[in-house]
Amino acid sequence: MYVDCEPFVSANTRLANLESLTPTLLELSTDFAQKSSFHEFSYYGDFWCSLLGIPEYQELARMAMTYLVRMPTTYLAEKGFSNLVDIKTKKRNQLQDVDSLMRGALESEIKPRFEKIEEAALVPVQRPHSARHSCFIKCWPVGVTGVAVNSDHHKAVLRVIAECDPCLGGEHWVRSLWGWPGVGGWWPHTRPFPLLRDTLDPTCPQLEAGKRRAEEQIAKLHQLNKLCLAGGGEKGIALHVKKNRKMLPRDKLKHILDPDSDFLELSLLAGLGMEYGDVPAAGSITGIGRIHGTYCLVSSSDGTVKSGTFFPITVTKNLRAMAISGTNHLPLVHIVDSAGGFLPKQAELFADKNHGGRAFYTEAVLSAAGVPQIAAVCGSCTAGGAYQPAMCEDVVIVSGIGTIFLGGPPLVKAATGEVISAEELGGGLLHSRTSGVTDYLAETEQEAFEVVRDVVATLGIEPVPESSPLQDDTWDTALLDAVSGLESISRQQLYGIIGRIVDGARFREFKQLYGSNLVTGYAMIEGKCVGVLGNAGPLTYQDGLKGSHFLQLCQQRQLPLVFLQNSGSKEAYDSAWLGEAQEEQHLRLRGRAAMVAALACVTVPKIAINVGGCHADDNYTMCGPAFSPNFIFSWPGTTVTHTLNPPPAAQPSQPTQAPGKEDRKKKSMSMFSFPEDSALYHAAQVLNDGIIVPSHTRQVVSQCLRICRQKEGITNSAKDFSVLRL
Fold first, then answer.
1. 0.85 cut: is pTM over it?
2. Start-end of CATH 3.90.226.10 domains in the chain
3. Residue 703: how many other CB atoms lie within 10 Å
4. The dihedral of CA 591, 595, 596, 598: what is its sign?
5. Which of 96, 160, 165, 368 is the most exposed place for a label (fewest CB within 10 A)?
6. What is the mean pLDDT of each run of 10 residues along the chain (726 residues)?
C-alpha cells in the first residue's frame, strides 16, 4: 500500500507531527534492523529517505542516514550516495569525520534528489539489486509520503504514522504483491474501478424543471405514506388501545427489534385505491429488521384497521412478504391479531392458488427449507386464520387477549346452543396446557415479544457484520430527486445515477462500446462488489447479447445484481419500436431471448429499481416481478406497461359514444384513482415492494444487499418436512 499526503499541509505541521513519533519509529526501525537482512533493510531505507529527506527534517535525516550506512555498499554506490559509501568503507576508528560526511550526504545527495521530486511530484524508484524490491514513492513539495507495506512491520510503522499524522487519509496508492516482498505491478488506487465523470449538471434547465416536478411527486408520496402509517386513524387507534387494551402495531415492532435496528418497510402503500375501499397498508405491517443482530422479516396484523380484517390485498401483501422471506432465507415472525376474512370478498380470499390458503402451504415449505417460522398471538385467530400460528415452529400466546379457534363463541352458540367464552374456547391457557398448539404463555404483550427475541437467539444464524461507513460519497445525492422528474433519462445521465449509488462513484464498465442502450459493469457498494445493469431505452440485439454475457459472469463469480430500469417515456419507446424494420425486430427478439434465459437461471441476489419507466419486454430483461427479484422498488413518477403488442399506427380519431349500462363499472369506494401504468398503482397492488425517495436509493440498495448477505452465513440444512406438532 502507498499513502500520500494532502499538498496543502504546511511543512512545520508535518515536522512537528513526525518529531512526536520519532521514538516509536526508531524503536520499530531498530527492531527491524536487528531481524532483517541487508536486502530487506535496504527496502526499508527508502522509506526513511522518502519520509525524512527534505531540509526541514535535517535532524531526523541524520538518524535515517545512521541506518543507511548499514546498507550494502553496491546499493549505496548505484544510488549515488558517495559520502555514505565513504563512511561505509572506512574502518570504525577512521570515522572521526562521520558528522561532516553525513552533512555532505544531506546537502549534496539527499536534498537535491528531493528537489527533483518536488518538480516531478511523482517518482518511481526501482531497486538496482533486485526487481523483487521494486518500490513506488509519491512526494509532495511539503513532504513525503510513499510507504511500501509488505510486512507486518511496515504495517505497524504505517499505523503509527496514520494515527499521528492528520495529513494522511487522502488518496491511497496500492501495489500488487506476490509473496515477500513481492513482484508485480503497482496500481494507482487502493480501491478498484475508475472514477466516473459526473454527468448531472445542477444548473441545467431540464434538471431545474425536473426538480419542480419531482418535488410535487415526492410531496404526494409523503402524504400517502403518512396516511398509511396512521393505520386505522384516531377512531381505530382509540378502539384498539382503550377498549381492547392492546399495544399499537408499530409499538410492537419497537419491542421486538433491536433498539439500533434499521427497518426496511415493504409495501407501505398497499391497499389504496381498492374497489372495496381504501385499506391503509393493506391492514398489515411487513418489513425487515434485526433481532439480536439477525435480520428477520416481521409481519404484523394491524388491529387498528377494521380490527385486523383480512382483505384480498392483505393476502397478496402477506404472500409477497413470505416470498421475500424464502428467497433471502429470513426468519419469519408473525404477530397475529385478526378478526378474520372480509366476508363480502371471501371468494377472493381462499379459493385460488395464490389466495389465503397459499400462506399455510408456504409456511410448511419454508419451515422444511430451514426458514424458521415464529408466531406471537396477540389477538384473535379465527377460522382459516387459526392455521397461521398452528403451522409455525414456535408459538407464544398472550393470556387474556390471544385466542385461536376455527369457530368463535357466537358460532358455537348458533350450532349447539352452548354459551362459552372466547378464553374457555381457545384461550392461551387451553392451548398451552391442553391442545399444545402454543408453546409459551405470556402474561403481557411485552413478555411475548421477549419470548420471540429469545427464540430468535436460539436459531444460530450468524449476524451480518456492521457495514463499513460510506466512502467518498462526495456527489450530491439530492440531484437524484431532480432526475426523477425528467421525462426521459439519457445514457449519460444514467452514469450520474450510478455514481450516486456505488462507492466513491467508481465504476468499471463492461463492453462499453458494444450495444447502445444497455450499461453493464462492476462497482462496489459498502465495500462489496456487485454487477450493475441499466438501460436507456429499448434493448437492441447487441444489448441483449451483452446483458446475457454479463449475467453469466456475475452468476459465475457470485456477484449480486443491481438493475436500474429506464425504458424512457412510453411514446419514445413506441416510436423506437415502430421505426425498426422487421428484420431488426427479429434480431432484437433473439438477443433479448438470450438475456431473458440467462436472467431466469441466475441465482445470485437481484435488486431492481425502476428509475425511468419499464415497458414491454424490458419487464423481463431488466428483472421485473415475473423474474423473482429479491427486492423491487420504484421512484415516484415512473410508469410500467406490460403489453408486448407493437403499438398501432396512428388512426383518425372516432367520435366517442356514451357508455351503455354494460360498459359502466361499479363505482369504487376508494378516495384514490391511480393510473394503471403508474408506480402508485403498482405499489397499491403489491406489484413492487414500495416507492422510495430517489435520494435514498443508495441507502435502500445497501440495506437490501446486507439483508441478502445473511443467507451466506446460514448453516442449517433443509429437511423433508416442516416441524410438525404431533
1. no
2. 208-457, 479-642+672-713
3. 20
4. positive
5. 96
6. 33 46 48 41 41 42 50 62 61 48 57 43 32 30 34 45 38 29 34 88 90 95 95 82 82 94 96 92 95 96 86 94 96 89 79 82 92 94 85 94 90 90 92 94 96 95 73 77 93 95 94 94 94 95 96 97 94 76 82 96 97 93 95 96 63 53 61 92 96 96 95 76 75
